[in-house]
Amino acid sequence: MPVDPEAQQDAEARRTGPKAEREAVERLDRAVRAAETALIEYEIAVETFRIEVENFSRLHQQRLGPLYARLDELDALIAEVVAARTGDPEDLRRAREARASVLPMPRVEELFQGWLDSGGLPPEATAMLTNRRVRPPERVRPGERARRLYRELVRQAHPDLAQDDAERARREEFLVRVNRAYADGDEEVLAELVGEWAAGPPDPAEREEARSEELYARLEWLAHRRELLAQVVSGLEESAIGSMLKLAPDDPDGLLEEIAAQLRTQIAEKEAHLAGLSAAGEAAGGGAGAGAPGAGSADAGSAGAGWAG
User: Fold this and answer.
1) At what angle do helices 144-157 and 187-199 cross, to 10 degrees?
2) CA 67 to CA 52: how far, in whole Å?
3) Highest mean pLDDT among 24-33, 174-183, 204-213, 260-269
């Protein structure tokens, strides 16, 4: 009996079609796994960079903070000496602003590190200070309909009713969703799960299509996640500390020491300037008028001589 070529081609297409789809899904799955691995490596690199920036910021504050504070104090002292000598309203304003920048008044939230706000202590803080347990949030109590749907789903989809390992795995995965919905007291989701179970498992073709959609969605999420991480990196690099760290990524300690040397030079110059202003004020006023601020400034200048060294 002769073989119809068209019928033979159709039969071949039916045999190769599902195989081609499976191979496409497998390639997509491999691409997703590769993207996940790359994202993990990128997240590690981003987290490492973030830690480096935080550590450098901490070192910057520890080593240079006192120097910056001394410069601010000297600026305030100089402004106060000038204002005391001239009495000019503008000089007095500058002196007040300079002094205010040295010791800014902290907010209540900063003093208590978030434990106290305008409404007083939050319950967690009160419980900690009084050695009492924090009252746990009330649990959601599922309604009667939710309990009925839950019993029905557990009875129908129990893993012990499975005939093979694949079916058992499907039932176990399904019951995880059922338990989550029941814990939330979500009757609508439980009702949807009842309909889903009644419809039965999807056929292989539908399962392959659903798997492809899941993988494509996963790839999109991975790409979006990488974009967010790139924005984090950009923010770190553009920050003041990040920009400074980029100047000497291999020797941040050397960079800090170089900046510290520059600050010490500025401190020495300002102390010399302050001492000159104080001496000139004493010579001109004979200790009168500007004597009080000048004397205090001279003491401050001599006391701070060690900073320049």
Assistant:
1) 30
2) 22
3) 260-269
Q: How far apart are CA 271 and CA 70, in angstroms?
A: 10
Do residues 25 and 212 touch, judged by C-beta distance below 8 A? yes
Q: Which of 136, 37, 101, 74 is nearest to 277 (CA)?
A: 74
Which tens digits make up the pLDDT trace of 39-51?
A: 889 888 888 888 8
Beta carbons within 10 angstroms of residue 157's beta carbon: 21
Residue 46 to residue 58: CA distance in whole angstroms: 18
The closest of 283, 271, 239 to 67, measured between CA atoms, is 271
* pTM for the model: 0.48
Give residue 300's identity as a one-letter amino acid code.
A
Question: How does the average pLDDT of the chain come out, rounded?
Answer: 77
Task: Describe the crossing of helices 165-183 and 187-199 by its angle, rounded to 10 degrees.
Answer: 160
Range 36-64 burial, b when 16+ CB lie within 10 A, else e: eeebeeeeeebeebeebbeebbeebeeeb
Contact predicate 46/229, CB 8 Å = yes
Summarised one tens digit per residue, pLDDT across range 168-220 is 888 998 999 998 888 888 899 999 999 989 888 766 666 666 778 888 888 89
Please list, residue by residue across 257-270, b when 16 or more beta carbons sit within 10 angstroms of its beta carbon and e when fewer do.
eebeeebbeebeeb
Q: How far apart are CA 281 and CA 301, in angstroms?
A: 14
